[in-house]
Each structure stands twice: as C-alpha cells, then as structure tokens.
Amino acid sequence: MLSTFLIALREGLEAALIVGILVAYVVKTDRRRLLTPIWSGVAIAVIASFAFGGFLTFTSAELSERGEQFFAGTTSFIAVGLVTWMVFWMKRAARTLKDELHGKVDTALTAGPFALAAAAFFAVAREGLETSLFVYTNFRTVAATSAASVGLIAGLLLSVVLGYLIYNRSVKLNLSKFFTLTGIALIIVAAGVLSYGVHEYQELGWIPGESSFAWDISSVMAKDSIAGSLLAGTIGFDVNTSWIQLLLWACYLGVVLRLYTQPAKVTITAAR
C-alpha cells in the first residue's frame, strides 16, 4: 500500500504541477481560449494511461506460465529503467521546466491549439504511462493487491488535491525537498522491482542461482502475510531471496542513491 501510494503521489503531483503551470500561464496572459486544448490533451493522456494499465493486466493474464514470467520480468526491468531516468530527469529539469512550458504556450499561438494539446498530452502521458508500468510491476511484488489499490487511489487523489491547492496558493510546499525525498523513496521501491525481475528471469533459467538463497525464512514469515507484503512492496524484501537478487538489489541501490543524492555541480567562470 505504501509503495503504490508513494508512486501515485509523486507521479500524480508532477503531472498536476505541469498542468497547473500551463493553466496559470494561459490565464495570466489572458489566453483562456487555449484552456480547451490543454484539458483535451490532459483527458486523452489520462485515458491512455488507464488503457495502458489495462493492457498490461490483460496481456499478462492471457500468457502461459513461462510467457508470464518473461513478461513480468521484462516489464520490471523496463519500469526500473524508466523510473531511474525519470527521477534524474526531474532533478535536472525542475529549474527550467516552468520556462519551457511557458515557451510551448507561446509557440501554440503560431502553431495552433493542436500543438498545445499535444504538449499537455505528452507532459501528462509521460507521467501516466510511467505510473501504469511501475504500479503494474509493483503490484506483482505484493500479495495483498486490495491494499495496494487503496494506496494507488489515495495517492492519486492526494496529488490532485495538492496540485490544486498549490495552484491556488492555498498551501506552500517545498517542492525541491519533496521531490528529492520521494525520488529516494522511488529508487528504493525500484530496487525491489529489480529484485523481482531478477527472480522471474531466474525461474526462466536465464539468470543462474535460483536455489542459492541468501536467506529463506518462509517457514517463519509467510509471503502473503502483512509483514511480508509490506516489506516486499516497499524495499523489495522477499522471504526467500537468492544471492544474485541481493547482490543486484544492493548494487543498484548503492550506485543510484549515491549519484542521486550528490549535490549539483556548480560551474564557476573565471573573470578575465
């Protein structure tokens, strides 16, 4: 539940802030006629995101056992790659995002409303499709999907509320600190998804060491227990984890967290 809540809150708030920037600039510059293409692009992006999530669920349900293992493992690796790219992209682009979006609104005046609808669509669809893929793979790591669904809905609702309050300046949020902390949380969740993908490929026989366990506490803690589900969905802990799973989990977490938490380099130009 906690992991899906964090995923939905982080991704949903990013999308809400992007839409808020577009809407605020259009209203401020008295171009309200452009609100229709903005909301049209947002609506299509939301529909596409839900459709993509449905496609992933339907496809995995129709596959054979080995096909499902391949599909689950591959989508896990893709999700980890996308989320890793996303948190670094947001860290790098946050400072110039507002100016970039304002430029797209200005461009829409000459290119037509379709360009603005496309800008809104791609901005929201990027977050929505990433969320669908990452949530799908995260759902695979937990036993209690009902609790994970509650976390997903709660995270999305809270992101919309926060986005609206920030737009109306009813609440002030240190966005830099928020995205840094949630970025760290998503990297930890992504490490768990990576471990799950490795496990699926081990079951296929494509990665060795399936039965070489770093630990096996399944006799003490059931995989579908509350504690087991919580640990699996947040930090990727499995009751029976192979050495290769543990090694790749630790390597990913150590390297990515170190790079992500490094302060941005400041370039100093020497005066002549």
Write the layout of secondary structure elements.
Layout: H1 2-28, H2 35-62, H3 65-111, H4 113-141, H5 145-167, H6 175-204, E1 213-216, H7 226-235, E2 240-242, H8 243-261
Antiparallel strand pairs: 1-2
Helix pairs in contact: 1-3, 1-4, 1-5, 1-6, 2-4, 3-4, 3-6, 4-6, 6-7, 6-8
What does this structure look like?
The structure is a single chain. With 272 residues, this protein is an all-alpha fold. It has a domain at 2-188. The protein contains eight helices and two strands; from the N terminus they run ααααααβαβα. It has helices at 2-28, 35-62, 65-111, 113-141, 145-167, 175-204, 226-235, 243-261, and strands at residues 213-216, 240-242. It has a two-stranded antiparallel sheet with strand order 1-2. Helix 4 crosses helix 6 and helix 6 (175-204) packs antiparallel against helix 8. It is elongated. The model is unreliable at 267-272 (pLDDT under 50).
Question: Which characteristics define this entry?
Answer:
272 residues; mainly alpha; two-stranded antiparallel ribbon; 8 helices; elongated; disordered C terminus
